[in-house]
Amino acid sequence: MKAKLTQIPRTMDDGLLGFPFCANLDELDANVAIIGIPYGLPYYPNELANDQSLTPDLLRQNAQDGAWHEPRTIKHFDWDLGGDLLHNQNIQVFDCGNVTSDLKDPKEHYRRAEKAVKKIFSAHATLISIGGDHGIPIPIFRGLPKNQKITLVQVDAHLDWRDEINGEKEGYSSGIRRASEMDHIGEIFQIGLRGVGSGRHEEFESAKNYGAHLISAYEVHELGIKNILERIPEGPIYLTIDADGLDPTIMPAVNAPTPGGLNWIQIRELIHGLVNKGRVLGMDLVEISPSFEGRRMTFIHAERIICNFIGATARAGYFN
């Protein structure tokens, strides 16, 4: 089934949600920087340009709020935020485009991604990354500031603790295992785990031996997000969201839909709670497969996740 996505006319000046483009990261002066990282490292040679690699550009074209074609001076009241997106502040948000690839060397995409996010963090901007599969956070993890321990929060149906598949150690099933090997990554919270395919016993034991907090979706439903937030320490946080961590009724366009995921109320509460608990250095949203999209349901929720993250950071005083 082909993606049923509306192609919205745009000018080259408009990035995601109508925010301006910044083509030169060396001159970045932003509070929030959005970047697309389309390509993970493939497990097999013909997988370099997978379905998820189309998502950054398709999300830009189909973000609902960006479709209004109204001047940026018009401020809409957002009921998720209790006011306009940027909280009536002079907050600079730029879309930095996509990390480019090299078909002769798939690993070059990761090297360029790491270099790009290091520049974004060096500019003291909050990162929003759009994937791509769940391998693309690996270069982001490497590019995070290393002056203090960072708590990693993952929303996902899967563990992602595979050491390697077909000899590749940095693909979409290995992101959290690679993060666990980095000195600047501290506690790891994995939220929304459920179903089959969430790791073999070896991966489960590796995660437990590390001390990862493995929180099933059913535990979230039973105890609530507030209970989960109370376990997460204050301090710098990085958030990685796999679209299949959410229930397929609201995020259907994924390769591995599994019943019982987080609902909209829960993911919104988690985002706002994390932002108010400690400085969230950035977030990524990955594993959206546009060919499974219908009625733009996944893209609408993806846009709402990003808007809530931007709006929550504005209200938390990150940029004062």
Please tag this protein with its features.
single chain, eight-stranded parallel beta sheet, globular, 320 residues, Arginase, Chain A, alpha/beta, 16% strand, 29% helix, disordered N terminus
Structure in a nutshell:
With 320 residues, the protein is α/β, with parallel strands linked by helices. The chain has one domain: 3-Layer(aba) Sandwich (Arginase, Chain A), CATH 3.40.800.
Task: Characterise the protein shown here.
The protein has 320 residues and is of the alpha/beta class. The chain has 9 helices and 8 strands. It has an 8-stranded parallel β-sheet, sandwiched between helices. Helix 1 links the parallel strand 1 and strand 2. The protein starts with 31 loop residues before the first strand and ends in a 5-residue tail after the last helix.
Architecture per CATH nomenclature, i.e. the level-2 architecture: 3-Layer(aba) Sandwich
Mean pLDDT: 91
Q: What distance lies between the first and last C-alpha atoms, to the nearest angstrom? A: 47 Å
Over all CA atoms, what is the radius of gyration? 18 Å
Main sheet, how many strands, which sense, barrel? 8 strands, parallel
CATH superfamily: Ureohydrolase domain
Instruction: Please count the beta strands (DSSP E, at least 2 residues each).
Output: 8
- Helix/strand-derived category reads alpha/beta
